């Protein structure tokens, strides 16, 4: 649904995006992460057909972004940091206008507008001018506009910024529900917890290049190493006589806790528990040590800055 190969964009002698290769299938959400100025917005603008690549290519919903920009724009819904809201219009007028842009007939425009205004909690303010809206209300209206024509591809830049927690959750739920066999979604965000909740695939961009891409579990393995498991003990216990199975390394220990790096948990953990039982260890629990996207991102960026 979204595919790029060596996608690059130069401004004079500065490469804002350099050899970015992405593949987002129907039914997937890709989180595009990186510092301000890393190239995320430029990448999205090329995917919309607003910027022509200097090198490489991109296809969105089956259309080439250079050769078929009109078809690309008809197939995408876009939420940008600058929403392009018309402040003198009411929300009803605004959504009706964009419904006409996308050539929806009058009944379809009204039905879709009414649904989106109700869903995002804007029905009571539907006939107020947008200039009177709060920042969060404007964000919700901009997202409604992106969804007005039910596009197969969504490109969302900071979709929950400026929203209160309840509204942000509503938007996250909507994005998750849009993950279907017909839609591919790209989210640019600095909210790592949100990316972790929503994304099937993650790409981290640094200075225009993709540092890492893949599923969160794949990135955890690549950046943080083998998964860690912790054994909690009810009383102090001497672990010096343990003979660990292959693929398990004792990483940390104290009197009532042991931490292990485990290469193949499904195979190795039963053997570890057998060894602990053999030595009559007072085991209370064996559990995976939580690792999250923030840890992956911060370590990857630190390594990139240091040139590792």
Tag the structure with descriptive keywords.
single chain; 308 residues; alpha/beta; Rossmann fold; 2 domains; four-stranded antiparallel sheet; 36% helix
Give a short summary of the structure.
The protein is of the alpha/beta class and 308 residues long.
CATH superfamily of the largest domain: P-loop containing nucleotide triphosphate hydrolases
In which range does the helix fraction lie? 25-40%
CATH class of the largest domain: Alpha Beta
Poorly predicted segments: none
Count of individual domains: 2
Kindly report the average pLDDT value: 92
- The total strand number stands at 14
Strand content: 25-35%
**Main sheet specs:** 6 strands, mixed
What characteristic shape results from the CA principal axes?
Answer: elongated
User: Number of DSSP helices?
Assistant: 10
Content-based structural category = alpha/beta
CATH topology of the largest domain: Rossmann fold
